[in-house]
Amino acid sequence: MDATTTAILSLDIQQGLFQLVPASESILARAIQVAEFGRTQSMPILHVGLGFEPGYPEIPPDHPTFGRLRDNSLFVKGSPTAEVPAALKKSTDITLYKQRVSAFSDNQLDMVLRAKRIKTLVLMGISTSGIVLSTLRHAFDKDYSCIVIQDACFDPDPDVHRVLMEKIFPRQASVMSADEFTRSR
Fold this sequence. Notes:
- There is one protein chain.
- β2, α3 and β3 form a beta-alpha-beta unit.
- Helix content is 35%, strand content 17%.
- It has helices spanning 15-18, 24-40, 66-71, 109-115, 128-141, 158-168, 178-182; strands at residues 6-11, 45-50, 94-98, 120-125, 145-149, 174-176.
């Protein structure tokens, strides 16, 4: 792994989701560990999360998933639910918003990564079967190499998390723990 062409992506690690995650403290601690290591290596840290305009113009009235966010007034840009935990985010980090599942959904993520000449993405986030899976597939299709930090990801279904990490993700990424990643240099 070349630190000069690697970026770390925290995916949907936001107050509005994080407060619903069992063992969120340990997941946040591992995400911080990875981000801090990345900073020591001068890797860009990008936080990609849900962020809607007031009034939710991005969500159709009958959307089965995102309609619930609108109905509960969640993830409006600038609101507490859309914020990345302060312990994870530094002023030098980049924050991008999306309105669908993949981190690449209708935003500037790919442009920012290409401008920084990034070739390898380190992924961690909530949830494994949502943004992490969608982003990994999208990144693979865009020819990025990927690393998934298994213990800095969470899925509400532990069996789905396990199957993705053990059987699906290794086809398109290296899967490792936060400790393995931070010892890799």
